[in-house]
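for the recovery benchmark. tokens below, seq after
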């Protein structure tokens, strides 16, 4: 393989160090994918209760709703990579503890759930810090590519992770799967530490003491809300993401629809579900290819409209091939929009406020999902168990909200792919946390979105 002679920009790691860092994050995301099935299986093994297994599947969503906003404020005050190291250590400890307790038959359901919530909360802090760290480590013209790689790894982990848990559990027992899960976070820790050690000591600002960082968190959150409200494109995109999650939640009915309404076999149901994961990986590639050529606001609107069309069409499709293609389109459209929304937010939100705005957007999106799922289930029950009108209505409403977002904000956005002038813009030291009372000016200033009449 040819040697990479590309020089790193000031304040940024070398290309090799960045690849090691992203590789570690891909391994860490695989750990998240392993946990999707490992925790519910562990609960079932201990209790045999399906109700407890359902409870074990919700810590991530509940964790974001509980600590998402404070996590954003604290990440803005602390060194984001220090937060990542601490949270990797916490998650490593959680899963290693679960493995040891499982091996010694000391586990109880309350202990499993408590540790699962700790891991989920640590994951919230980690993901928020990762968004800020990517902004610091990656040149603007490579943000879309980097976010696409991470999202593709996320989609792949959600497909491969549960299957890997099944294989490891069948061969060596569930405790081995938990040890492997813990090791993924150890790999992430090592790669983040490598990036930190690879930089000059003077470029690493220490985080303030935690007690000092906790002071005035409420005021910081209010400042983040004001920032979100002042950037119309970011606000509109956040509202669009929340509404899309509301309608996408009817996707929880997909397996029921395929199996009980259309009477498809297990292999056909699995193929349709897997097509969504394939579409997600394809969506990450689409974001990279088109993100360098088209306005990101336009691509976000097209992605949101595409998922609406796919949802509505799922309500009228009855044969296997159209269902495969539509779920592939749904996954592709969703991930394309997610990657570009994340990249747009990283460019337009001031660096000192990025953690808060990111956390606020994710909390809004995740809060909408259970509401949509409950509404979809209730409407299906009212319609005598037929979810087709629910898919159709959710898709049409998604298209309408996308049209409204385009009219009231995305059409007037002026953000374009970075040109040569931007590619060589000087970079300031990225790590320094902003003390309370200082200006929230971004480290790398990007033009504010201008609105047209």
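predicted aa per position
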């Amino acid at each position: 393989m040819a040697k990479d002679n590309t020089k790193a920009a000031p304040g940024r790691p070398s290309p090799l160090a960045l690849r090691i860092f992203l590789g570690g994050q891909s391994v860490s995301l695989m750990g998240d994918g392993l946990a999707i099935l490992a925790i519910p299986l562990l609960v079932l093994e201990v209790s045999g209760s399906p109700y407890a297994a359902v409870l074990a599947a919700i810590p991530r969503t509940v964790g974001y709703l509980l600590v998402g906003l404070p996590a954003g404020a604290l990440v803005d005050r602390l060194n984001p990579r220090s937060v990542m190291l601490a949270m990797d250590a916490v998650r490593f400890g959680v899963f290693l503890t679960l493995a040891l307790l499982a091996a010694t038959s000391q586990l109880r359901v309350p202990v499993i759930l408590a540790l699962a919530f700790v891991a989920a909360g640590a994951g919230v802090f980690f993901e928020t810090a990762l968004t800020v760290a990517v902004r610091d480590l990656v040149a603007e013209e490579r943000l879309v590519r980097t976010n696409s790689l991470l999202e593709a790894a996320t989609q792949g982990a959600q497909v491969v992770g549960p299957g890997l848990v099944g294989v490891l559990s069948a061969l060596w027992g569930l405790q081995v799967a938990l040890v492997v899960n813990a090791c993924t976070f150890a790999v992430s820790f090592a790669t983040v530490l490598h990036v930190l050690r690879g930089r000059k000591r003077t470029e690493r600002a220490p985080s303030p003491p935690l007690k000092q960082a906790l002071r005035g968190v409420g005021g910081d959150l209010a400042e983040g809300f004001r920032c979100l409200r002042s950037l119309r494109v970011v606000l509109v995109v956040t509202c669009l993401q929340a509404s899309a999650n509301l309608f996408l939640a009817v996707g929880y009915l997909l397996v029921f629809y395929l199996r009980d309404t259309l009477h498809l076999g297990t292999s056909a149901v699995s193929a349709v579900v897997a097509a969504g994961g394939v579409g997600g990986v394809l969506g990450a590639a689409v974001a990279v290819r088109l993100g360098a050529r088209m306005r990101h606001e336009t691509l976000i609107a097209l992605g949101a409209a595409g998922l609406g069309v796919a949802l509505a069409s799922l309500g009228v499709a009855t044969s296997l091939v159209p269902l495969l293609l539509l779920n592939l389109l749904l996954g592709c459209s969703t991930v394309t929009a997610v990657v570009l929304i994340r990249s747009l937010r990283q460019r337009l939100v001031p660096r000192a406020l990025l953690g808060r705005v990111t956390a606020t957007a994710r909390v809004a999106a995740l809060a909408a999902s259970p509401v949509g799922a409950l509404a979809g289930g209730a409407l299906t029950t009212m319609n005598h168990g037929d979810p087709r009108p629910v898919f159709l209505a959710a898709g049409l409403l998604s298209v309408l909200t996308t049209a409204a977002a385009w009219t009231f904000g995305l059409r007037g956005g002026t953000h374009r792919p970075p040109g040569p002038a931007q590619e060589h813009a000087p970079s300031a030291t990225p790590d320094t946390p902003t003390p309370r009372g200082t200006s929230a000016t971004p480290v790398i200033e990007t033009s504010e979105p201008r609105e047209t009449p």
